[in-house]
Amino acid sequence: MEIGEFAWANVFLDEAVEAATQHGYAALHTDALLTRLLVRHHVTDDLASWRSEVVREVNVVLPAAERENDHHLLAKAWRLLGFVHGSVCRWGDQVAAVERALEHARLSGDARLEARLSAAHTLGLCDGPTPVAEAIERCEEIAARGLADRQAEALVLCSLAYLRGMRGDFPEARELYARAGHLLRDLGGVVLAASTSLASARVELLAGDPARAERELARDYEALAAMGERYFLPLIAAHLAQAVQAQGRDGEALELAATAQELADEDDVESQALWRRVRGKALARAGRLDEAEELVRESLAALAPTDAPVMQADALVDLAEVLPAGARAEGQAALEEALDLYTRKGNTVSAARVRELLDRLVPETA
Domain limits of the chain? Predict the structure, then answer.
């Protein structure tokens, strides 16, 4: 799974499930089932069905594992529920599930699983409503405790990089994501190594360097596409479209947005929202304002059930950009709502940019 050999991973896990069934090893059978679901999460083209299958299996596993005090299986089951919630950007639920998994991993004495769960915990702290200052403090506490897994250490560094980027600490953010990439490449975990651009690109877009973001994303896009990975790839394609568009290349951005649309599952909330925003802005610049507004509003609707404040705020800023001149008051309201979301999250870089946009509106609305 970690080197991108997903087909072989499934072959071996199918054999493990069959053998465990034949020999009556109930715990091993369940462990293999849960691990197989984890692998499929990287290659599924039907995220909704995958989530339903996870919930169904976990609802069977949890009562039995609780009766047996099988903390290892309990940790793995709650971990998968964390993936389910994170895949649709329900970060509060993701954090709660991962915290339950962490408790059981500690009780089972599985230091490696505990480390990887700690890394997953930081993802929810980044993208969810936890304020940046608190999220940085908690991530640094996790890193300071020492992790029994270098892959997990790298993922924590990626989370810290993005959090530092939101505060404008760009030299430190760059050092953090570079260290993470080196660690993952040294470990040979090519799948996760090819996903670090999700952190680095966000840092570089905040820093105003979309060309650097594009280079990072293009490298990872090619690597993941070559191995047939489907979980990270749609989002990386959507971010690549965003980075290209930020450099004024709307034609290329539209092509990449179409690729992201084709790759993304219907329930892949972040990818679905992002490709719509990219396409909407390109259409607005081409004078097709009604279509542009409809797409950005669809993006906002997709994000409405989530608790991802930065994603929601980003979409509100784009809405203000594509609205026609006669809707200035609505655009101002969208920017004010975005500013509130950025401020509460502690994303000072994006908040400062929105204040500049609002300041430009003041003379024209006075």
Answer: 1-91
